[in-house]
Amino acid sequence: MLSAELWHSAISTGYAKVIKILYQGAKLQVSILGDFALLHENKNKASRPSIMLSDPLLLQMPASMQMTDAQFFDFCQVNRDLRIEMNQFGEISVMPPTGSETGNRNFNLALQVGVWSEQDGTGICFDSSTGFTLSTGAKRSPDASWMKLERWNALSAEQKQRFAPICPDFVVELRSPSDSLQPLKDKMTEYMQEPGVQLGWLIDRKHRRVYIYRPNQPEECLENPDTVSGEPVLPGFSLKMNKIW
After folding, report:
1. Rounded distance, CA 29 to CA 170, Å?
2. Residues 6+ positions from 41 with CB-CB distance below 8 Å
3. Judgement on whether residues 46 and 87 belong to the same structural domain of the protein
4. Where are the beta strands (DSSP E) in 33-179?
5. pLDDT grade, residue 85 (50/70/90)?
6. Looking at the structure, do residues 88 and 124 belong to the same domain, yes or no?
7. pLDDT given for residue 102 in this prediction
8. Which of 61, 95, 129 is the last residue of a domain?
9. Which element (helix H / strand E) includes 26?
10. CA proximity to 202, closest of 89, 192, 237
11. In this predicted model, what pLDDT tens digit does every residue of 55-75 receive, in sequence order?
């Protein structure tokens, strides 16, 4: 959580990005700070202190304002420029858009998974803008994911239109320069406790490591791999890391 002093400094120096949230008939103004959400309206930047946050902003909602699944979906649609997730306790994390380099690596990741998925034909893949509702009630958006067609087709049309109540078979999280590692590891552990999930990768570009997760198995770490195999969950798929590092 942000300290009162940081909030005051951010607001008084003009570093705060304000978004308006329409929720339960009220307009809430939330100041979002982050590496990529700083406003520089004053040309004399030297006169302003530097404020940088490495973690997403965590919003704790009062018990009287906890959102239903439908309300959270609408909340995200109103603020579609931001990546928003919710944990099982109803706490909302708000992440600013990624930097250009991370966005390119995300694209290369999704592209490789997507090309394999089209050739394989047994499943459907999703990009980082896709939300899923986990069994705990948490709402998560992996950077890339893949799901078997029979699981996807078992969902109703309405469920597919919102944050589907299912965890993909395969999930990937790509660590950006501003991300702390442990929260991402905790998220991967959370995925592995979900019904139907079979494989997860956490890609740490900063240290050139790939953490492999499987249900009921210990975490595995690959040091600077050239490729990462998806076998046997993703038959024939191997992620080429030269486009990801």
Report:
1. 36
2. 14
3. yes
4. 57-59, 83-86, 92-95, 123-126, 132-133, 139-140, 144-148, 170-175
5. very high
6. no
7. 92
8. 95
9. strand 26-32
10. 192
11. 578 888 788 888 899 999 998
Do 231 and 213 belong together in one domain? yes
Average pLDDT over residues 21-43: 36
Q: Is 190 in the same domain as 217?
A: yes
Tens of pLDDT, residue by residue over 160-185, are 999 999 999 999 999 988 889 999 99
Q: Are residues 159 and 41 in the same domain?
A: no
Question: How confident is the model over 102-128, as pLDDT tens digits?
Answer: 999 999 999 999 999 999 999 999 999
Average pLDDT (123-149) is: 97
The 8-class DSSP code of residue 122 comes to: S
Domain check: are 109 and 71 in the same one? no
DSSP code of residue 235: T
Whichever domain contains 197, its CATH number is 3.90.1570.10
Strands (E) located in 131-216:
132-133, 139-140, 144-148, 170-175, 199-204, 209-213
**Full residue range of the structural domain in which residue 60 is found:** 4-95
3-state secondary structure of 234: coil
Total domains in the chain come to 2
Identify the domain boundary among 95, 115, 144. Answer: 95
Q: Measure CA of the first residue to CA of the last residue in the chain; give whole Å.
A: 31
Please give the Cα distance from 33 to 27 (Å, whole number): 19
